[in-house]
């Protein structure tokens, strides 16, 4: 898409640092330079106001990545593009069949109602819950990793969705302040929400998580 739009050597492209390194790699492959902007904390997608502040005369495009099945709020990003004459591209996730999405939403709603001490996902418009990502608040430091180890020890699979933000990777290292990105990297954890999970599976997830309340502060 970037190459077809004429983006190339000397151009800058604003991208998120929270998530796929492939987006920054695609920018580099056409000869342009990735510029990292911070995310909005409930959607984990680019924040329109921060994107606008990151623009320079060399900025040619913005690549918005929809994250975890939660679409980005495109209105402010398109407004930035229109004001500044920039190309705004969307990088989506693979579509999920309707029936599977409905079952995931049902399981997500169950977790929303039962989990304690965790910040559950923002439902938002059109969330398909390709991943059910919670926040594990820390007591002045991240408790997410300790929480994940304890949950796994109770037989519940979970995964850290983003271990290292792209702007901290050696090939793309930049000295830039992205506080929401850094916080999300430290706090997020993906819990199971697959359509095949049974009621007993869901109860096990809730029991494992809620038994660890001592690790956590109240959700903010």
UniProtKB/TrEMBL annotation:
Gene3D superfamilies documented for this protein: Aspartate Aminotransferase, domain 1, Type I PLP-dependent aspartate aminotransferase-like (Major domain)
Keyword Transferase among UniProt keywords: yes
Listed Pfam families: DegT_DnrJ_EryC1
Database matches in InterPro entries: DegT/StrS_aminotransferase (IPR000653), PyrdxlP-dep_Trfase (IPR015424), PyrdxlP-dep_Trfase_major (IPR015421), PyrdxlP-dep_Trfase_small (IPR015422)
A Gene Ontology molecular function term of the record: transaminase activity
Keywords from the named record: Aminotransferase, Pyridoxal phosphate, Transferase
PANTHER family for this protein: 3-OXO-GLUCOSE-6-PHOSPHATE:GLUTAMATE AMINOTRANSFERASE, TRANSAMINASE
Protein family (similarity comment): Belongs to the DegT/DnrJ/EryC1 family.
Official protein name in the record: DegT/DnrJ/EryC1/StrS family aminotransferase
